[in-house]
Structures are given as structure tokens and as C-alpha cells.
Amino acid sequence: MSNETVTYSLESVLKEIKDSIKEVNQKMDTLQRDVNQKIDTLQQDVHQKIDTLQRDVNQKIDTLQGDVNQKIDTLQGDVSDLKVGQAKLTEKVEGMDKRLEKVENEQSTLVKAISDLQGWMA
Asked: I need a surface site. Which of 6, 81, 82, 119 has the fewest CB within 10 A?
């Protein structure tokens, strides 16, 4: 074994350190670009999935709203039909009331006539 001494100049050591730092900086820059690119890709994927989900939800809400509107329209039609039916029934009841009054008047007249006849025959 020999004891050899190696000497380097301070300038050469500093140059080696600077070159190493430069290389590390380049690697970090590359890593940062890769990470940023992956984050951007993930962010785009998330936005796309959110947009798709929002479209699906909006479509389902529109379908439900259409169904509800159709049911409301049907109910409004049924209510209108009931109102028309009620008006017809009211007309019939009023007609029946008038006929009943007429029958009662005729009955009263007949009872009076029979009473008069009985009084005349007696």
C-alpha cells in the first residue's frame, strides 16, 4: 500500500460541484414537468367526469320534470272534467227541483180539487 496524495485545485472542485448542482437542477426540472403534466392530465380527467356526471344528472332531472309536468297536465284535465261533470249534475238537480215543485203544485191542486169534490158530494 502506498500513501498517495491526490490534490485537486479548488477551482476544479467548485466546477464539479456546480456541474453536479446543474445536473440535479435539470433532473428536478424534468421531474417537476412530469408531475405537472400528470396533475394536468388528472385534472382534465376529473373535469371530464364531472361534466359527464352533470350532464347525466341534468338529463335525469329533465326527464323527471317532464314526467311531473305530464302528470300535472293529466290532473288538470281530470279536474276540468270533474268541474264539467259537476256543472251537468247541478243543471240536472236544478231541473229536478223545478219538476218537483211542479209536481208538488199539481199535487196540491189535485188534493184541493178532491177535497172540493168530497165537499160537493157530501
From this structure: 6
